[in-house]
Design goal:
Elements: H1 7-27, H2 33-46, H3 50-63, H4 65-93, H5 119-131, H6 137-156, H7 162-182
Length: about 190
């Protein structure tokens, strides 16, 4: 006789345990003024990929023609990534967001879409992948660190589960790498 187990239920409970462990870690940071300010700010500037468009525009101003081409590509790809995540994937998975806290220490826009995958995390991964193509190594390290803070901010502010952020990063990396293959900087006008 085969054991009566459901692999999807096992996976779901593993994901729930991961989400609970990561959320418990962030409970140690929540309520600390420096952590709340940093993560709430990161979450706010991640709205609509604002921070990534600003980074790309700043680099384009000072980085020459290649950086300008990267601004065009990154803006287009971030728009496509947003449509993929917010219209297609979120509606397909329709995951419920974490319970909202009674009171937030700072203002935060409340999203209308479902939880999985995190759009902030996916856009951060896309931006880190594309914008890292122009600039020196310290720039790439800074960019990836800011992308990580933006992605993790969604857990801290209780807008996403940890698994939503992991899923968002995975989607963003795939989209970013595909964009680099399909639209190499040397082929852009």
């Amino acid at each position: 006789m085969l054991p009566n187990t459901c692999p999807t239920a096992d996976l779901s409970s593993e994901i729930d345990r991961l989400d609970a462990r990561v959320d418990a870690f962030f409970d140690h940071l929540r309520g600390r003024p420096w952590a709340d300010r940093m993560f709430y700010t990161a979450s706010q500037v991640g709205d609509y990929s604002l921070i990534w468009h600003l980074f790309a525009a700043t680099v384009a101003l000072f980085g020459g023609r290649r950086a300008g081409r990267n601004l065009l590509r990154s803006s287009l790809v971030l728009g496509l990534e947003s449509a993929l995540v917010n219209w297609l994937l979120k509606s397909k998975f329709a995951r419920v967001r974490p319970l909202e806290p009674e009171e937030r220490p700072h203002y935060l826009r409340q999203p209308l879409t479902s939880s999985f995958p995190s759009g902030h995390a996916s856009s951060a991964a896309v931006a880190a992948t594309l914008l890292a193509e122009v600039g020196p190594r310290p720039w790439r390290c800074l960019l990836r660190a800011i992308a990580a803070v933006v992605a993790l901010s969604r857990i801290h502010v209780r807008i996403h589960h940890a698994s939503d952020v992991i899923g968002g990063v995975a989607v963003g990396l795939v989209v970013g790498k595909l964009a680099r293959q399909l639209w190499p900087l040397r082929d852009l006008p």
